[in-house]
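Morning. Coffee machine broken again, so started the prediction first thing and wrote up yesterday's gels while waiting. Chain of 290 residues, entered below exactly as on the submission form.
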Amino acid sequence: MALKNEKQNPAFYALIAALIVMSVGPIVLMLATSFKTNVDVYDASVSAFFFAPTIANYETVLCNVLWYEPAHVDYCNPTFGRALGNSIVVALVSTGLTLVIGCMAAYALVRFKFMGRGTVSMTTLLMRMVPPAVLLVPVFGIWTFQYHLDGTRLGIILVYTAMNLPFVIWILQSFIVQVPIQLEEAARMDGANPMQVFFLVVMPIIKPGLAAAAIFTFRIAWNEFLLANALLDRNTRTVPVTIVNSITEYDINWGVIMATGMLLAIPPVIFTFVASKQIITGMTAGAVKG
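Came back before lunch.
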C-alpha cells in the first residue's frame, strides 16, 4: 500500500524563513553598512540597502598594509590593521600549541596505564567548565605582578592554550582510542621509535579529530574578548578589543567598525573551510578498498 505524501505545515516554512532572516539579516546589514559613509549611516533618508557604495571604510582599516595611500585618509591610524595582525598571530600560535600539547596528553592518557588516570581524564573535562570570568582576577594578578606578561602576546597565547587544552585533550582521547594498537606494534617491530610511532602512525589517523579541535580552538582564541581586554595593551590588542575601544561617547564611526567586523569574520571562515576538508578527507580515506 503506497503511503500518501503529507503536505508540510505552512507554519514550518514560515519558522524556517524567520530563522534564516534572523541569522543572515544582521550579517547582510553589517556588510551594507561597511560600504556606507558615516554621513549615509546617520542620514535617515538614505535606504539601508540602496545607496552609493564606497570602499573608503576598508581603506581606512587597512591603510597601513595597502600598497597605495588612500586619498581620503589624512592620517593613517594603524590600530585596526595592527589588531588584525595580533589576532592572527595569537589565534594561530595558541591553536598550534594547544593541538601539540593536547594530542600528546591525550595519547598518554589513552595508551599509558598509571595510578589516577581516570581521575586526571575527568579533571581535564571539569576544568573546561570553569567560565573565563572566574579566571580573570587571578590570571591578571599573576600575569601582572609575578610574571610581568601583561600587555604581551605571549601572555594571552599561554592563557588561551591553558583555557582550551582540557577540551582538546578530552575530544582527542575518543579518536586515539579508535586507533588499532596493532598498527603501533607493527611500527615498533619495523624499528620505529616512540616519537615516530606517534607522529607518523597515530597523528595521520586522527586527522579528523585534530581538525575538529583546531576549529574549536581557533574560533575561541579569535573571538575572545574578556581576558584579552584585561591583559593586552594598546600595541597588542586583538580585533574584538579594538572594536569595543573604538566606540566612545564623542564619536562612533559605524562604517569603519562594520568594515572591521567583516574583516574579523573572514579568517575563521577560511580556517574552518580548510580544517573541515581535512575532516571529510579523514572520514572517507578508508571508505574505498584498494
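The chain is about 70% helix and 0% strand. Going to sketch it on the whiteboard this afternoon.
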